[in-house]
Amino acid sequence: MKVGFIGLGVMGGPMAGHLAAAGHEMTVFNRSFQKAEAWVKANRGAAKGTVREAARDRELLALCVGNDDDVRGVVAEALEVLPSGAVIVDHTTTSAKLAREMAALAQAKGCAFLDAPVSGGEAGAKAGQLSIMIGGEASAVERARAVIGAYAKAMAHMGEAGSGQLTKMANQICIAGVVQGLAEAVAFVERAGLDPAKVYDAISKGAAQSWQMDNRWATMARGEFEFGFAVDWMRKDLGLVLDEGRSNGSRLEVTALVDQFYAEVQAMGGRRWDTSSLAARLRPGARKES
Is residue 48 flagged as an active site residue? Predict the structure, then answer.
């Protein structure tokens, strides 16, 4: 297909790379044009200087940008040139309200909009093994399925516009609670004088097992927090979760508490540490930066 890709960051760059490798005719745009040029040198495609140029005549336009306002601006510009019947696939984590707004805007222009946030982090993007939660029209999902499959190990159509984002919020709620539990367990093990590796071997095959335990227990115990999804991004996501929770009446006490703990990590200077850095605030000598 003729595919455009907007946003070539740590997630978007590898995702777009899988599309090029799958043989799609690619145009790409990034706010830093140098990054788009570097992507073209490593892959097949054409770097464009504006969203409009990258979107022109594309059958499918994928986005992986920063926040609601970024998506709103990109979609408005792209719809000026996208042909009727084109599908916009937004992989940005945003509010469900924004997804519904963009779906209505696209429909008015004869196009379709899918909210399709991802889970799997930078490693999943590089490996083409992301899990993708999709909201929007079923017919548009089917048209986009073969394209999305280039970087997905699993994709699920969750329902109408906004459903993908709501599902991603549930994903982040689960992660927040699990990572905080692991952080407390690692700190407890250290203070109890136990060997973290032996404790992991003892408990990781039972009910306590999780992806986070398997992939982050040892690094948390060593105080290593350079593994992808940053605290700043997690706080953005949890802000969306808590806002939605206030709207629909959900009780999110643990999520709200963990969000405050991430604020402490930011104050320690850990804005770019990965989400497992909740363990940092529990380590001996942890302190906040002024």
Answer: no
